[in-house]
Here is the input.
Amino acid sequence: MLTKEYVSKIKANGNGDLKKLIEMRNDDKSIVFILENIGYLPDDFDDSWVIKLLNSKNKKIRLNAVKTLGKVKNENNIPILLHIAKTDNSTDVRREAVSSIGRMRSKKAIPSLIEMLSDDDPKIISQAIRGLLVFKGDKKIDEKLKYLINHENETIQAVIRKEYFNNNRILKDKLKHSESYDYLKNKIVLGDVRDILKLIPDESFHLTFTSPPYYNARDYSIYPSYKAYLKFLTEVFKLTYDKTKEGRFLIVNTSPVIVPRISRQHSSKRYPIPFDIHYFLVKIGWEFIDDIIWVKPEASVKNRNAGFLQHRKPLAYKPNARTEYLMVYRKQTDKLIDWNIRQYDWETVKESKVKDGYETSNVWEIDPRFDKVHSAVFPVELCKRVIEYYSFKGDLVFDPFAGSGTLGRTAKYLNRFFFLIEKEPKYFEYMKSFFKKNDSTLFNEKESEFLTIDEFKVIIK
Here is the structure.
C-alpha cells in the first residue's frame, strides 16, 4: 500500500529507488501521491526523471513536477521552467513554474522573472514580483518593478505601492491607533456634516456606521438632482475616509429608493443608491469587503404588490422590498487586519471578543424600528451587531447622519465612545431627551454633550 511513510522510506534509500517507485507505480494517481508527499529534497537530488513528467497529459502531475523542481533549486532548470511558464495550457501550472523560478533565489533567475512581468495573467506577474523582491535594492530591478505602479491591475498596484511608494509620515503628535481625542468623545454636533468634518483631525474615527438620507424620499433629504445627491455623499465619504484610522471600517446602510410619479401619466423612478454610490466609494479609496443583507418582515414594508395581485399581468410585477444593504468597506492599507488588532492591549482584545450566538451569514433578519418623530431610524440590534463585529471597547464610533442617535446610544451601552453629526434641529433636540434620560444608567460614564458647530469650534482649539 502506498503511504506517506513508505514514500519517505524509499526516498531515504536514495534517488534511484524513488525513480524505480515511479516506474513501478506508473498510474497517474500514484505518481501524484508520490510527488505530493516527496517532502524536502537535497541540492544534489537527481531530478532528470522529474523533468520527464513535465510532458504528462495530467495537469496534476505537471503541477507537482514543477513544485518538485522548485524544491531542488537546480539553476539548470530555469530555462525549462520558463518554457513551462510561457507555454503550458494550465494557468495553475504556469503560475507554479514562475513561483519555482523565484524560490531558487538565484541571480540567474532574474532575466526569466523580468520576462514574466509582461504576462497577461496578474497572478503570474505577482509571482514574478515576489521572486524579484528578493533582490530589492538592485537599481535595474527596482526600476522594472516601480514601473508597474502604472499597471491596470489593482492588486499589482497595491504591492508596488507598498514596496516603493509607501511614504506615510509619522507625526510626533499623532495618536496611537487605539486612541481617540477626548474632545470628540460622546459629542453630538449640529450643523452641515462637511463643515464639521473639516474641523476634525485626520485618523480620528475607528468605525463609521451610517444610513445616508434617501434621495428626495423624505422631507429632510431634498436635492436638486440625483447627480447632486451622489456628489454630496461622495464629499461626505471622502472627508470620512480622511478622518478614519488606517485599515478601519465604513458600513453604509442604504437601499434602492422610489421617487413617486407626478401623475398617472408618468412613471415613478427607482434609484439604485447602493450600486451607484459604490463606484464613488471605491474611487475615493475605500476597499469593498462585504455586502450584508438586512431582511425585514414582509408585513413591516410598504405593499407594492396590491395592483399586480388583482390583474396578474406580466411586466407589471413589483415585489415588496424587504431588504436593505449594509455595504462594508475598509480604509485602504497595506497592513493586514492582524496589524490593527495588535495595536490594542490583550485585555482590550479579550474584553471585546464577540460572544457566542453571533450571526454567521450575511443575511440578517432584524425587525425595523418605527418612530413618531424620525421616519427612518436604526434598530438597536442592527447597531449592536455592527459595533460589536467591527470595533473594540473604547473605540470612537461615528455617524455623519445621526438622525435619532441610535448608534450613539448603542455605542455608549457597549462601552464605546461616539461622535454624531446631525443637521436637522428637530432631530438634534429629539436626541437630547433620550441621552439625558439614559446617560446616568449607561456603562460608559462620560456624559454626552450637545454642541452647535460654533461651540464645537471653541472646544477643539
Residues 168-172 have pLDDT under 50 and may be disordered.
